[in-house]
Amino acid sequence: MNGESYDLLSELLRAVRLSGERVSAYGPLDTFSVGFSGIGTLHIIEEGEIVLRVDGAPQVERAGRGDVILLPRGDAHHVSDADGHASAAGGGGASGYDVPAPRPARWLCGTFTIGDPQASHLLASLPAVIVLRDARGPALEGLEVARRMILIEMQSPSQGSAVMVARILDLLFIQILRAWAADAGAEPNWLAGALDPRIGPALSAIHRDPGRQWSVEELARACCLSRSAFAARFAERVGKPPAAYLAHVRLDAAAELLRDTSLPAGSIGENVGYTSEVSAARSSSGTASRRLSGDEMHGQDARPRAERTYETARRLRCGPSRQ
What we know:
Elements: H1 8-16, E1 18-29, E2 33-36, E3 40-47, E4 49-54, E5 60-64, E6 68-71, E7 77-81, H2 83-89, E8 105-114, H3 121-124, E9 130-132, H4 141-155, H5 161-182, H6 190-195, H7 200-208, H8 216-222, H9 227-238, H10 242-260, H11 265-271, H12 278-283, H13 285-293, H14 305-314
Antiparallel strand pairs: 1-8, 2-7, 3-6, 3-8, 4-5, 4-7, 6-9
């Protein structure tokens, strides 16, 4: 078994075709509300305080100078001033003390294009909002360097500045995800598992060869752990058992083959490891082809093609994965 680690983060960027787009400077502003939707977004707070709300969700994040907020999935959200919330928290009464007026908010906003958000479960499994508090500390020097480089390109644009900014945004996206996943308080996630030297080899093996009939015992051996210790550690760090994770990786691989090749559905099912009841998958290959070509739209089906492709890939699951 190849012992080299598999670069899951690079796979994510490639699969969903995520790339840095542009950076805009906001502020100084006293009262404001700015909406964002359909794009990955990064907010770097330079001064003052902002409040971020994800549309249709109860989540509210307050962020101040030095904080960095990443919305990797492109969830729609609004950024507004914090003054009204601060007044409400103070009770509205005179305290006898002079409270200094808060500084107007000023922040940088970088955006990312996400060409195919349904192409990888890795993106969908990330949280809607990732916040790094006081990201100017010594542990995150790379973020500060990238921020300064963006400011230089914005203040003194020259030939190639657009590409420079786009590449720096890609760098920031990777740095923020790494820092978030490495934090002890982060929720279980695939990147934390990939960074964990005890179970990282198993994730690398799964992604390198999703069509192999992996067993928990074999994956545990790759990590030099007992079956029980491996299964417990995997679920703790990744947030799901090995078999469930393998199923998601296979679906991603099947969706990519359905989208990018002319292979029949049955052959794709075999390629990604679904060998049981292959004849059933083959029988659905015509339906899969019609669905991908748009012949089976059931009227006005406005879902993205990638989403329909992913659903077709789900149909290739002809039987349970081996435990």
